[in-house]
Write a structure and sequence with these properties.
141 residues, alpha/beta, four-stranded parallel beta sheet
Length: 141
């Protein structure tokens, strides 16, 4: 079992704080090894909802119809066919690693809280079809 597989098994689906300094390249390689799709959301420059949604659009490679609002984020996270998501029952899942999550949290706590809720709702939607969806928040400095 890889170190990442152990972490994912320990945390389970949903949103979790992960105080790890492992390089993104190592995380990405391990995720691929265990059949998980891995997306990195860089919040180091995110100060508000608009910047967060732009970063999500870039990181998840949302389609052109992405509406830049919370409902559109929820809709796109519940789909993700363009990644493509792992097949149900394959043992794989969808991992989002949020870099410098505290930057966003300290800049706009209300928007950050809503973002966490949207991710939790996405995790529940994926759970219903048998695909784990995990968000690991790396707080940064």
């Amino acid at each position: 079992m890889t170190a990442l597989a152990h972490v994912l098994g320990e945390f389970g689906p949903g949103v979790h704080v992960w105080n790890s300094e492992r390089p993104a390249s190592d995380i990405s390689a391990e995720a691929e090894e265990i059949a998980w799709r891995c997306v990195f959301v860089d919040c180091s420059r995110v100060r508000d909802k608009a910047q967060f949604l732009e970063e999500c659009e870039r990181s998840y490679r949302f389609p052109a119809y992405f509406g830049h609002n919370w409902d559109a984020l929820a809709d796109c996270l519940a789909d993700l066919q363009w990644l493509p998501p792992p097949e149900p029952g394959s043992g794989g899942g969808i991992l989002t690693v949020v870099e410098d999550s505290n930057t966003f949290a300290f800049a706009d706590l209300d928007a950050y809280s809503i973002a966490l809720e949207v991710w939790e709702e996405a995790a529940e939607a994926w759970r219903r079809i048998g695909v784990p969806f995990t968000v690991l928040l790396r707080p940064g400095e």
